[in-house]
């Protein structure tokens, strides 16, 4: 091979190498547009919640584009749950943390959570919170201060539940704007269901006959649907002591209720004793934690149906 | 030509001491202004890097420098406090990170803040995890090394004033994690949740349940829904899983104190709007751009540098004159040597070339020495500065 021929061959190889390098760089710099979107779409929005109603709303609206975590063990009241630091650490890693507000889940005030990811779903109606009677104590120079209690079962007023669901939808849409159209559609479906429940319950409560609540968790229900309800402090799984029965009898003198709402099925012995006092029992489950059967709507329909019996109405769904 | 350089080199090599002194003098004179410039530039970059990475800081009206030094470098006395509400007010359309830098533990600043601070400063955890609950802390890398602390150990906050026994209680905090070395003031700090600093201050506390029988001895009076306790009621100086639920805060958290808010606007427009809000505000808060504050500080430093440079130049000129004088004097002393060179056939030009080569060689060697010192300064200067600053 002559020097000229060798030179030309080397030049040709060099040119091919440069072209190949440029082509490789071009490929690396501009991946297929679909790849980026698919990558975004395949990463689910990770959401942590503090109670089951929020889990239901988030899952119902977000569908398979979200992964909703609710780490409270079944059987425990989420309002009183106190997670260990490892669970709090898991909350820290969420894309969104949905809070109920109204002082629900007090552990949040003692935890270190990213404020930018926390959504207080009841913030739009903070002025509608119901303040319960508080215990005041004083010590030191600060003087009196009360550990006041805000009623927190806001979702039992289905119009407030709808506002909370709307906050959930807006939080999802802000975090992932590309999912907004389909999430809006799902939210509107949920909105119809909640408004239907609200309308049904409004129709069911026809008068102000006195009703009892086994536990002070029905405040928003009573206010919204104008139910003449007063509460005691009975637990479904415990037989009340003598003092509790005495207080109930005193209450019945002023508030002659014929029905008591329970968070869960009470003991047969408790039911029997109540019936001796002329009070019948029915379950109105606040559904703060995951129900054993069905979902949030199923439980609420069952609740509404049960409450209808108080007013002599058949509200089977 | 090569013979000329050979003769010059042999002369310099024979008179080692004189050559070393001359080369060192030239080297130092050349190095002084350049090395000083390099050192000052590195100092400026170090000081301004953190300031440039922090867009805006909001604090109570007062000394801007004190606010910036406390917020960015956790130094100086803590500035006037402002209410936590200021942080909420800023956060509507931008990232707002509250800071409360007031307390210390064994000389290390305790920084009360939120989780967003760690993302903002790109701080990573080397071992353990970030604080999850009140009463936990995460240590900067240098603090952990200084205290020989590990995850699971404890640190105790220092009282502010040994004579104020009724003031800030020491709080024992569990170390939940240790941060990776970041080569920043964050390495020298102890980070806690903002609420933990409020507990250190005594704005929040935990105590026995006053409705429980065990607390009976601490009750002064009990009415229907009101309990008055005496000073014997036990307040907790350490937050544990067992007593955490008892911790609570009095009053409105929005009124609680913070020393600063770091604002990270989404874009230039929101930055301008935010700054405009505070410029027109008659309230007690101010907004500062840390980079500008540090530039003003460094302008003062650079002014001093100019005087030093001027002095160095004057000294350099004097030294150069002295070196020239030494050469001229040595020429007189070497008259017999030059006569010998003439007698063995060296022309005037060749002899002059040998003398000139000696001078050039000294200057070149001096310059190389200066270059080496400058390189060393650029590599190690930042480390020296950081050590001096920490001292």
Q: Greatest interface and its residue counts?
A: A-B, 29 and 35 residues
Structural class of chain B: alpha+beta
General form of chain A: elongated
The stretches of 5 or more residues of chain B where confidence is low (pLDDT under 50) are none
The helicity of chain B comes to 40-55%
| Beta-strand proportion of chain B | 15-25%
Number of strands of chain B: 16
How does the SSE layout of this entry go?
The complex is a heterodimer of chains A (317) and B (391).
Chain A: H1 3-29, H2 33-42, E1 45-49, H3 52-62, E2 66-69, H4 85-92, E3 96-99, E4 118-120, E5 131-138, E6 144-150, H5 158-175, H6 180-204, E7 211-213, H7 219-224, E8 229-231, H8 242-254, E9 259-262, H9 268-276, E10 280-283, H10 296-310
Parallel strand pairs in A: 1-2, 1-3, 3-4, 7-8, 7-9, 9-10
Antiparallel strand pairs in A: 5-6
Helix pairs in contact in A: 3-5, 3-6, 5-6, 6-10
Chain B: H1 2-14, H2 16-52, E1 56-60, H3 64-73, E2 82-83, H4 85-90, E3 94-105, E4 108-113, H5 116-120, E5 125-128, E6 136-139, H6 141-147, E7 154-156, E8 172-179, E9 190-193, H7 194-201, E10 204-205, E11 219-222, E12 226-229, E13 248-249, E14 257-258, E15 260-265, H8 268-279, E16 285-288, H9 290-333, H10 335-343, H11 348-390
Parallel strand pairs in B: 4-9, 6-8
Antiparallel strand pairs in B: 1-15, 1-16, 2-14, 3-4, 3-15, 5-8, 6-9, 7-8, 10-13, 11-12
Helix pairs in contact in B: 1-11, 2-9, 2-11, 3-9
